Amino acid sequence: MLKKEIIGIDHGNRNIKTRNEIFTAAVQPLQTRPDSFENILEYQNRYYQIGGRVPRSEKVDKTIDDDYYLLTLAGLAKELKHRELSEASVKLGAALPPRRFQTQKEEFKKYLSKTKEIHFRFEGTHFHICLENTYIFMQGHVVIYTLLNENDGFCLLIDIGGGTVDLVGFVDGMPDGNYYISDKGALYCIDKVNEEIVARFGTGVPPYITEAFMRNGNYDCPEKYQKVIASQLKEYSGGIYEFIRSNKYNPDLTKMIFMGGGASVIEKFGSNKTKDVKFITEVRANAIGCEEAVKRIEQMKQMRRFRNA
Questions:
Q1: Residues 280, 186 share a domain
Q2: Residue 187: C-alpha distances to residues 13, 65, 211, 285 (Å)
Q3: Domain match, 129 and 201 both
């Protein structure tokens, strides 16, 4: 009998996240059998390179091709490998952005659930997955509801992803139906830092240095670069608060929760004093929240069966 597992996957534009794994949301078909199987997915007699160059644009409809299905298989394999398994009966939890949840949730569920008995190889290991059920949640909502228990009054979620910044309000733990989006996500911030460095010094800054600054608030490099990078990250943080104000929210009077890969920028470089603000800098929070939400659903099902017995 297959062991039962609950796995949450956050299908980001920039990265795929599970509870324990993260990798770039890039997939490249290969024409021939590769010499090395590192990050190689073999599915239906075809080979795919998983990860690599970060996608630069948002894929609005993730069901338009097979890429996100293949990335899902890779995510399942990586998470099962972390759990020292190569076969399992899986209940899958996935999440969509707030602005697309209502319109895409049914199609995304069909897309992820199209095959119940799945056989494939990842990095040379054969995986067998029986997909028992698939649940689709709203990004951010699963975090607020399952991890923070922020269920009283109003709060504003600011999700700073790789490509976009999403605002969604919650009243007593439920979305209020107002969604706002900006295209100035973490990749925009990295690009602006590089542009300013080039303008000042005639040469660019590697993205990993800027990303380290974003995560940690500093990086061991010449002081002149540190000053410019820090200045740009402060400017970016100010722009995020201005985006909040432009959509009729007062940051001084609003309970705010920042999450996503860019949340650490606001935590380290934003004007946060006197504000009621929390930061979720764990980039896998949505994936973890999906798992917790599925667990709660299964627990409620068991309680109903027990009462009806």
A1: yes
A2: 11, 24, 10, 19
A3: no
Q: Which one-letter amino acid corresponds to residue 195?
A: E
Q: How far apart are CA 116 and CA 134, in angstroms?
A: 10
Number of domains in the chain: 2
C-beta separation of 107 from 100 below 8 A: no
C-alpha to C-alpha distance for 177 and 169, rounded to whole angstroms: 7
In a domain, 304, yes or no: no
Judgement on whether residues 271 and 249 belong to the same structural domain of the protein? yes
290 occurs within a structural domain: no
Determine what percent of the chain is predicted with pLDDT higher than 90: 76
Q: Is the domain of 20 the same as that of 117?
A: yes
- At 2, list the tokens: 């297959």
Q: What does the block give as tokens for 67?
A: 């890429």
Segment 148-162, tens digit of pLDDT: 665 678 999 999 988
Reported as a single tens digit per residue, the pLDDT across 191-243 is 999 999 999 999 999 999 999 999 999 999 999 999 999 999 999 999 999 99
Domain that holds residue 231: 150-285
CATH code assigned at 197: 3.30.420.40
How many other C-beta atoms can be found within 10 angstroms of the C-beta atom of residue 307?
7
C-beta separation of 135 from 159 below 8 A: no
Token pair belonging to 184: 């100035």
Residue finishing a domain among 116, 138, 160:
138
Helix residue ranges per DSSP H, the chain = 67-82, 98-112, 141-142, 186-201, 207-216, 223-246, 263-269, 285-308
Do residue 162 and residue 250 come from a single domain? yes
Of residues 293, 296, 273, 275, the one with CA closest to residue 285: 293
- Residue 232, in any domain of the structure: yes
CA angle 77, 21, 104 (to 5 degrees): 80
More confident residue, 143 or 213: 213
